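lol forgot to send this yesterday, sorry. struct tokens for the thing we talked abt
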């Protein structure tokens, strides 16, 4: 845990059993495409946005407990899970629009957004595009903070990725990959922490349509040099918006130093580090994750957005103090090194 003035002691809460009725998928047709989502509970809205290749199922163990005090909405992003997978725009901005439209059909005007990995980038983009509908941000191992990203994702962004993903489903290949994963875990590597969850993402791409949607989504945010979308130039706009960053200190996909860079660049943000966790800290320690989300939403007031405040922030521009510039420079330099 980081020594931070916003930090408060958090007691882990026991997780109760998951009820099937609370986790079943529901569907809405928006713009002619079927959108799958899970929805449970009553109270202030809490939107859980999964990462690339994943689905709302990644939050399944957490939803019932979060639903004790929130209306929880966990969508399958377009191209993911049980949602339709058309040949469409899979950019971060398009996903933010899709989340807004789904929430509108559900009668939800504003919410706290929890975004993991790509979903963190979607949450930040949502807050940028629709600040009046964003109450708080909780960013979990979020993309869009620096260029560095796991080399495997850079590789998958290259031509020929369809063949590589298809080959992972050939007979015997799963066994070989499983042996490699066990070896990485025995060697106690960071990638070994994340490999089982990452393999589950591959298993969630059973056909060509799913793989095409995954690759189109990946190429919208990653190329051979790393991440191509950044929020650093606009993160000063989060001033006045309660923001919490949650990260595993052994994240092999998005390095934990991105968490410190984002924390330094986002005014008033709070940072919590999960020791020993990888890219999925909410899987490693779900009780602590739930406790942090509940405590953060209970002890912070929703962002008080106004057109005047937004205009003042934009007119004031990005702060040019030495600390902010140093953080951005270090992230850029490290990204260049990792890309070459």
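and heres what i got for the seq, position by position
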């Amino acid at each position: 845990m980081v020594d931070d003035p916003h930090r408060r002691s958090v007691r882990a809460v026991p997780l109760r059993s998951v009820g099937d009725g609370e986790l079943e998928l529901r569907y809405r047709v928006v713009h002619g495409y079927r959108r799958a989502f899970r929805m449970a509970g009553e109270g202030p809205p809490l939107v859980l946005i999964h990462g690339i290749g994943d689905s709302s199922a990644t939050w399944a163990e957490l939803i019932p407990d979060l639903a004790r005090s929130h209306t929880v909405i966990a969508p399958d992003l377009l191209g993911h899970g049980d949602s339709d997978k058309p040949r469409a725009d899979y950019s971060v901005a398009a996903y933010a629009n899709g989340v807004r439209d789904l929430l509108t059909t559900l009668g939800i005007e504003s919410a706290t957004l929890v975004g993991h990995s790509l979903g963190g980038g979607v949450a930040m983009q949502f807050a940028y595009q629709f600040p009046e509908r964003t109450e708080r941000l909780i960013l979990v191992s979020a993309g869009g903070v620096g260029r560095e990203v796991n080399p495997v994702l850079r590789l998958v962004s290259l031509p020929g990725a369809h063949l590589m993903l298809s080959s992972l489903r050939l007979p015997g290949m799963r066994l070989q990959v499983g042996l490699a994963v066990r070896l990485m875990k025995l060697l106690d590597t960071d990638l070994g922490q994340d490999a089982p969850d990452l393999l589950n993402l591959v298993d969630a791409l059973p056909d060509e349509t799913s793989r095409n949607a995954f690759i189109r989504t990946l190429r919208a945010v990653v190329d051979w040099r790393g991440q191509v979308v950044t929020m650093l130039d606009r993160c000063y706009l989060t001033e006045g918006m309660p923001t919490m960053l949650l990260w595993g200190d052994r994240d092999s996909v998005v390095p934990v130093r991105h968490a410190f860079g984002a924390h330094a660049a986002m005014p008033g943000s709070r940072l919590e580090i999960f020791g020993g966790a990888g890219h999925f800290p909410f899987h490693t320690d779900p009780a602590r994750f739930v406790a942090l989300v509940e405590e953060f939403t209970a002890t912070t007031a929703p962002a008080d957005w106004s057109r005047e405040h937004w205009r003042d922030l934009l007119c004031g521009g990005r702060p040019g103090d030495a600390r902010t510039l140093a953080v951005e420079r270090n992230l850029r330099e490290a990204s260049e090194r990792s890309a070459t």
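Residues 160 and 289 are 38 Å apart (CA to CA). anyway ping me if u want another try
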